[in-house]
Amino acid sequence: MRTQIGIVGAGPAGLVLSHLLHLQKIESVVLEVRSRKYIEERIRAGVLEQGTVDLLVETGVGARLKREGLVHHGIELRFNRRGHRIDLHELSGGKAITVYAQQEVIKDLVAARLDAGGQIIFEANDVTVHGFDGPKPSIRFRRNGQAEELHCDFIAGCDGFHGVCRTSIPANVITDYDHVYPFGWLGILAQAPPSSNELIYCQHERGFALFSMRTPEVSRLYIQVPNDEDIKSWPDDRIWSELQLRSALDGNWKLAIGPVLQKNIAGLRSYVAEPMQYGKLFLAGDAAHIVPATGAKGLNLAVADVRILAQALVEFYKSGKTRLLERYSETCLRRVWKAQRFSWWMTTMLHKFDTDSAFDQHRRIAELDYLTGSRAAMTSLAENYVGLPWD
Ligand code: FAD
Ligand code: DHB
After folding, report:
1. Centroid of ligand 2 to alpha carbon of 100 (angstroms)
2. pLDDT at position 16 over 90
3. How far is the CA of 340 from the centre of ligand 2 (A)?
4. Counting beta carbons within 10 angstroms of the beta carbon of residue 252, is it exposed (0 to 12), middle (13 to 18) or buried (19 or more)?
5. Which of 102, 147, 200, 207 could form a cystine bridge with 76, CB 3.0-4.6 A?
6. Are 110 and 40 in contact (CB under 8 A)?
């Protein structure tokens, strides 16, 4: 088999890349280890930045997102039993975020690629990448037990944090920057209408809590739990009572409760691999970097990377120039590090650390108090939350 771009991974990075390349008449094949059903049901992120929404809409894969996505003009920060609204729309000059589940984005992209005759090979096993330090890159894999090889001009490693592409680059080429937080998030999907029209980020002495949603009937809720917590120690009643305690308010507030549809625990991590390219292999999305979920940046960064990669590949195929390809990592990393900073800042401001001294606790409340009382500080939060400009 032969194609122009061999893409490993059908997450947001791989699928958006394949779609953008197709619009520019560049061929690609996507190799995905999981089944179509699995990736279309996997529950993950839910907040799309303005730029991500615009890109999906402008490139023709945003019709359902426009119809079903929930546009939010603000978020609430809650601490000391009081809520403070941040008007994202007004503070960012008219931008917003859209709540639309990652697996819905995946469904829309898979359908668009397949409708356009695109090739996504699901359940591709034992994927390995070869020859990217020379002129003939290739990807070997097994389909239905048969060994196959895909020859290509370039390989895009869009295979997430645990994929094979990053670790195939010689170790002495990559510098990694890694920070693991001493807590994770227990997330539930509940058959209960959202308790508020907008997302609520709660700072509380018992730990962080987040109130989000998926549809007008389904809530997505998170609480901070210790690292390596066993999910079995969190029966539904305990989760609801903890959510209740951490969101308590002087004033009107009623937590809507309903059957828990899904429950999981995910760790929080900040990670960057530098550079994001080696020879003819380019890493994008979680394959190259991870952000703690508090800033809602993971999916959006994946889309931002492949937008840059698609532009660089278009320049190469149109003019033979490698200028943008050579600068790919440098261009992406400027945005990546800013998202890292923002995600780290939101995480450290809103979570409880076991190592906190009384001084740290007072400083954290003072930071929130300052933030919610200062237009300048709220503007900074708003412009990062809705997404920094592309360039
Ligand atoms: P992925 O979505 O991970 O896609 C990589 C794809 O590659 C997957 O389909 C995988 O099956 C495939 N793959 C892996 N290895 C191979 C291989 N060897 N061969 C072939 N295919 C392979 N972000 C937020 O902003 N908010 C959240 O609430 C949030 N929750 C999350 C919960 C979980 C459990 C996880 C893991 C991530 C979460 N994220 C969240 C982060 C966000 O979902 C990711 O940043 C986003 O999915 C990145 O997209 P990607 O395409 O780079 O990687
Ligand atoms: C969601 C996830 C996040 O990490 C976040 O910061 C906001 C919302 C969500 O899953 O809805």
Report:
1. 10
2. yes
3. 16
4. exposed
5. 200
6. yes
Confidence of residue 250 (pLDDT cuts 50, 70, 90): very high
Atom of ligand 1 nearest to the CA of 286: 52
Start-to-end Cα distance in the chain: 36
Q: pLDDT band at 205, cuts 50/70/90?
A: very high
- CA-nearest of 299, 14, 305, 35 to 159 is 14
Report in angstroms the alpha-carbon separations of 38 from 6, 120, 123: 21, 14, 10
Has residue 360 got a pLDDT over 80?
A: yes
Amino acid code (one letter) for 86? I
Q: List pLDDT tens digits, range 284-298.
A: 999 999 999 999 999
pLDDT (tens digit, 9 = 90+) per residue, 139-156?
999 999 999 999 999 999
Which of 210, 224, 345 to mutate to test ligand 2, by most ligand atoms within 8 A of the CB atom? 210
Q: Is 101 in the pocket of ligand 2 (CB under 6 A)?
A: no
Q: By the 8 A CB rule, do 47 and 99 touch? A: yes
Atom 1 (ligand 2) nearest CA: 46
Cβ 356 vs Cβ 46: under 8 Å: no
Question: Quick one: pLDDT at residue 27?
Answer: 98
Locus of tokens 């994946």? 302
Q: Is the dihedral of CA 374, 379, 385, 391 positive or negative?
A: negative
| Shortest-distance atom of ligand 1 to CA 296 | 25
Residue nearest to atom 5 of ligand 2 (CA): 296
Confidence of residue 54 (pLDDT cuts 50, 70, 90): very high
Write b or e for each residue in 324-353: b if 16 or more Cβ atoms lie within 10 A of its Cβ, otherwise e.
Answer: bbeebbebbbebbeebbebbbbbbebbbbe
Looking at residue 391, its pLDDT comes to 77
Are 5 and 26 within 8 A, CB to CB?
yes
The per-residue pLDDT of the chain, averaged, comes to 97
Does 339 have pLDDT greater than 80?
yes
DSSP state of 115: H
Residue 150 CA to ligand 2 center (angstroms) comes to 36
Closest atom of ligand 1 to 31 CA is: 20
As a whole number, mean pLDDT of residues 65-83 equals 98
**Given the DSSP bridges, would you call strands 138-143 and 146-151 parallel, antiparallel or unpaired?**
antiparallel
